[in-house]
């Protein structure tokens, strides 16, 4: 029953994405409950809500992060959408920005930067990746992947590709592979690093979670 509901939700959201009909996303409940209550890297309520700061270090809060977000809700998380006209090379250009927030993946491994590196890496080796659209680092702090385009024609093409190819055909492979890699990483490193006082969720170097291409289930030489 739950699988059918998830499939229906994804189908509806894909249809709304295809016809450019986003809606207000609001503040996801998990960003509040998970960030406050999780055992690893919890964020104090006043920091999370933006009423305080830590030693003048800027930490985006959920209100500023999500209050104006529009997009689409899927079984795997949310896709935000931002379409605006920008001055590029002294001319007005339509710019589209789509950001992915995979809820279960970010709950499993609460370091969006490391997850982002992993997803960017996995996309490079996917057999049906696009040579025209390449993912960017996301702007949102609880987002892990983004795509953007400039110019009306390219924006339309990006939307169509996301709705018909990336989300239904590529993203499931990336998320499944990322979850598998992260679980193996956590199982391998948890006890050793915990005994040495090392937090495995702290980024030591770029692409820390990435494995050899030959270890990827979808990699083809």
Q: What does this protein look like?
A:
- The structure is a single chain.
- The protein has 221 residues and is α+β, with helices and mostly antiparallel strands.
- It has a domain at 78-215.
- The protein is built from seven helices and five strands.
- A five-stranded antiparallel beta sheet has the order 1-2-3-4-5.
- A hairpin with a 2-residue loop joins strand 2 (70-74) and strand 3 (77-88).
- Helix 1 runs antiparallel to helix 7 and helix 6 crosses helix 7 (152-195).
- The longest helix has 44 residues, at 152-195.
- It is globular, with a radius of gyration of 18 Å.
- It starts with a helix and ends in a 26-residue tail after the last helix.
How is the secondary structure organized here?
Elements: H1 2-18, E1 23-24, H2 29-37, H3 45-48, H4 62-66, E2 70-74, E3 77-88, E4 91-102, H5 103-108, H6 112-124, E5 145-150, H7 152-195
Antiparallel strand pairs: 1-2, 2-3, 3-4, 4-5
Helix pairs in contact: 1-7, 6-7
Helix content: 40-55%
Topology as a string of helices (H) and strands (E): HEHHHEEEHHEH
Low-confidence spans: none
Q: What is the tally of beta strands?
A: 5
């Amino acid at each position: 029953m739950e699988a059918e509901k998830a499939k229906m939700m994804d189908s509806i959201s894909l249809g709304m994405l295809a016809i450019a009909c986003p809606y207000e996303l609001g503040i996801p409940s998990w960003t509040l409950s998970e960030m406050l209550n999780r055992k690893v890297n919890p964020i104090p309520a006043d920091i999370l809500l933006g009423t305080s700061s830590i030693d003048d270090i800027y930490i985006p809060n959920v209100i500023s992060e999500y209050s104006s977000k529009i997009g689409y809700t899927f079984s795997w998380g949310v896709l935000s959408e931002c379409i605006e006209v920008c001055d590029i090379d002294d001319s007005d250009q339509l710019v589209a920005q789509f950001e992915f927030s995979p809820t279960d993946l970010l709950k499993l491994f609460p370091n969006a930067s490391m997850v982002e590196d992993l997803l960017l890496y996995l996309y490079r080796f996917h057999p049906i990746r696009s040579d025209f659209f390449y993912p960017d680092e996301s702007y949102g702090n609880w987002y892990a992947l983004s795509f953007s385009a400039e110019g009306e024609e390219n924006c339309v093409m990006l939307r169509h590709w996301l709705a018909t190819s990336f989300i239904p055909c590529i993203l499931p492979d990336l998320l499944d592979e990322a979850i598998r890699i992260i679980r193996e990483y956590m199982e391998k490193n948890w006890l050793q690093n915990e005994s040495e006082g090392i937090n495995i969720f702290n980024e030591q170097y770029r692409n820390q979670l990435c494995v050899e291409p030959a270890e990827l289930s979808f990699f083809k030489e």
